[in-house]
UniProtKB/TrEMBL annotation:
Its EC number is 1.3.1.34. Residues 9-333 form the NADH:flavin oxidoreductase/NADH oxidase N-terminal domain. Residues 379-632 form the FAD/NAD(P)-binding domain. One of its GO terms (biological process) is fatty acid beta-oxidation, unsaturated, even number, reductase/isomerase pathway. This is 2,4-dienoyl-CoA reductase [NADPH]. CDD domains: DCR_FMN. InterPro entries: Aldolase_TIM, FAD/NAD-bd_sf, FAD/NAD-binding_dom, NADH:flavin_oxidoreductase, OxRdtase_FMN_N. It holds the Pfam family Pyr_redox_2. It comes from the Bacteria. Its cofactor is FMN; [4Fe-4S] cluster. Keywords: Flavoprotein, FMN, Iron, Iron-sulfur, Metal-binding, Oxidoreductase.
């Protein structure tokens, strides 16, 4: 290879009839704009920004080839000429920026959130409300034709290809696996029959679109569910797909009903590339790897080692649309790194809201949350360099304000400095690194170790209070006992606790502390795979080992006052991961607890109407936060324009998504 930075990642890929400008595939993401009135204009802008910055090939969010395949009754479909006209907005915008784009065709099957759901068999999934109807032979053949018809329309709309969604437990995947296909006709029973649906779709699509059109097949290479495919079966299907006319094989990991994390921040970087590597040896067409790849160097290493021909990244392009451009310019430190939190992307989509990004609230709001230059050179003081303060200071400086940022500590980052020390949340360090760079690049004057007072701030045109939160100490008798410690002190000072620990408060912070206190000593990829019973040898069906939980040597109680589930933490799509982790490690999850006193014996409490004493070595207080703001009232009295944001405005549960967006939105309005 030449001496270009990231020579493997930035090398073109020749497909014979087309050439991709590099090995970066922007993976499919449903943004919610697909379903909004006027959403296609916004989608066009969203994709155009990423194309302009050099993405090799973009794949859209999933569009159903027919009505029954829609995820929701009113969600996106692509099946007629009216749809073609709307989609030309997207393809034209991408092509004008020199990019290529493929339309993902996705049939939800039994994952459809409607009574119209259909599948290979009438078996309801554990995450669905509706039992699907078993598809008749006529419905199967019509659906195959619908996929082919939609692909033909995609070509007419200007797309460079289509991706057929054959993984993640959607319809095609449902036909492949015995878990959801218990038919005994030509479409079920033997593995040859179960893969027939996938192969017939590919053949029908290829016949309609010709030889010079990209067909990507998203192949489930590791189902991570019971009765999933074996390694030999995956290889058989991969080679058959190549013979049927697939251009590129993309990797799929896990079904949506999988009870193993696959893309959340707890998952090690590139945790599943070894799966793609094994399949790559069996096919000759390009193969794409994916999941938790979020830096150019991780991607480069994968390609340099020959584990894949392309790298798929989806959420990293929410976090930073200029990911590829910055890699090309050897500016990796300037990339706003995806932290895998899911809080503004998947969590939003699963409740019907528009996706965005915790670290980049402008994602999917390219035409709305715009930082326009200011007409006059006004001065702004931001007090507090936590996530809200940093985001606001940078955004204001980007608009042309003269910005001073005051922080009483000797480092920026606020609560993120604590979060990054929690096992599985190390990525938060990247956000602090990014904002530190942007503060410098945008000319913000950062005053560390300075606790600003009202007198210092009188000369500014605008003052933003972002002084954050402090731990709330509950009124429990004996709360000052030496056994007791608040979460901030514990994490900040890296204190060593005893063998028995009680945690008061089971919100996101309590969950993080319980996770930290029970983390296994080994923390490499192999130990993580073992903890989640993933079969790296691919001997077992679906890649699942027999369950064998790790029990922490430290006994921990995670408790809350209210009744209900304990240990979920924040995040609709990640809460179950936190709870399952704690359950696997033997953490006691108690709800409906009344705390009475703390003394030398331990923690006195009442649970289920019975008084108990927990004879613990330490008690960690994670019972919420209170706002810190001693300045706004004084400044308002002096007639200064004051804005209070972040935890200083509303403590509640720590919510970085809310406070970063709030900071950027305020800067946009100043």
């Amino acid at each position: 290879m030449d001496d270009t930075i990231y020579p493997y990642l930035l090398a073109p890929l020749d497909l014979g009839f087309a050439q991709l400008r590099n090995r970066v595939l922007m993976g499919s993401m449903h943004t919610g704009l697909e379903d909004e009135r006027g959403g296609f204009e916004k989608l066009a802008a969203f994709y155009a920004v990423r194309a302009r910055a050099g993405v090799g090939l973009i794949v859209t969010g999933g569009f159903s080839p027919n009505f029954r395949g829609r995820l929701h009754p009113f969600s996106a479909e692509f099946s007629n000429g009216r749809h073609v006209r709307k989609h030309r907005l997207i393809t034209t915008a991408v092509h004008q920026q020199g990019g290529k784009i493929a339309l993902q065709l996705l049939h939800a099957g039994r994952y459809a959130m409607s009574p119209f759901a259909v599948s290979a068999s009438a078996i309801r999934s554990p995450i669905s409300k509706f039992t699907p109807s078993k598809m008749s032979h006529r419905q199967i053949n019509n659906t195959i034709n619908d996929f082919a018809h939609s692909a033909e329309l995609a070509r007419e709309a200007g797309y460079d290809g289509v991706e057929l969604m054959g993984s993640e437990g959607y319809l095609i995947n449902q036909f492949i696996c015995q878990r959801s296909n218990q038919r005994y006709d030509d479409w079920g029973g033997s593995y040859d029959n179960r893969i027939r649906f996938a192969l017939e779709i590919v053949r029908a699509v290829r016949a309609r679109v010709g030889t010079d059109f990209i067909i990507i097949f998203r192949l489930s290479m590791l189902d991570l569910v019971e009765q999933g495919s074996t390694y030999d079966e995956v290889v058989q299907l991969a080679t058959a797909l190549e013979a049927a006319g697939v251009t590129i094989l993309n990797t799929g990991i896990g079904w949506h009903e999988t009870r193993i994390p696959t893309i959340a921040t707890q998952v090690p970087r590139a945790a599943f590339t070894w799966v793609t590597d094994k399949i790559k040896q069996q096919v000759s067409i390009p193969i794409v790897t994916c999941n938790r790849i979020n830096t150019p160097q991780v991607a480069e290493d994968i390609l340099a080692q020959g584990q894949a021909d392309m790298v798929s990244m989806a959420r990293p392009f929410l976090a930073d649309p200029e990911f590829v451009l910055k890699a090309q310019q050897n500016r990796a430190d300037d990339i706003n790194t995806c932290i895998g939190c899911n809080q503004a992307c998947l969590d939003h989509v699963f409740v019907g809201k528009r996706a965005s990004c915790l670290v980049n609230p402008q994602a999917c709001y390219e035409t709305e949350l715009v930082l326009t230059p200011v007409a006059t050179n006004r001065s702004v003081a931001v007090i507090g360099a936590g996530p809200a303060g940093m985001a606001c200071a940078v955004a204001a400086a980007e608009r042309g304000f003269k910005v001073d940022l005051f922080e009483k500590n000797y480092h920026v980052g606020g609560q993120f400095n604590l979060a990054m020390q929690i096992p599985g949340k190390e990525e938060f360090k990247q956000t602090v690194r990014y904002f530190t760079r942007r503060l410098e690049q945008t000319g913000v004057k950062v005053h560390l170790g300075v606790e600003a007072n009202a007198e210092q701030l009188l000369s500014y045109d605008e003052v933003i209070i972002a002084t954050g939160v402090q731990p709330r100490i509950p009124p429990i008798t004996g709360i000052e006992h030496s056994k007791v410690i608040d979460y901030q002190t514990l994490i900040r000072e890296k204190l060593t606790l005893g063998k028995k620990v009680a945690i008061i408060g089971a919100g996101g912070i309590g969950v993080d502390v319980a996770t930290m206190l029970t983390e296994p000593a080994d923390s490499d990829l192999d130990s993580w795979l073992r903890e989640w019973n993933i079969d790296k040898s691919l001997t077992y069906c679906g890649g699942l080992l027999p369950s064998e939980d790790y029990i922490s040597p430290r006994e921990v109680w995670l408790m809350q006052r209210r009744s209900g589930k304990v240990g979920k933490g924040p995040g609709r799509t990640t809460g179950w991961i936190h709870r399952r982790t704690l359950e696997k490690r033997g953490v006691h999850l108690w709800d409906g607890v009344e705390y009475h006193a703390i003394d030398d014996q331990g923690l006195h409490l009442i649970i289920d109407g019975r008084a108990r004493i927990l004879e613990v070595d330490n008690i960690v207080i994670c019972s919420g936060q209170t706002s810190v703001d001693s300045l706004s009232a004084l400044l308002i009295e002096q007639g200064i324009a004051v804005h209070v944001i972040g935890g200083a405005e509303e403590a509640g549960e720590v919510d970085a998504k809310r406070v970063i967006r709030q900071g950027v939105e305020l800067a946009a309005k100043l």
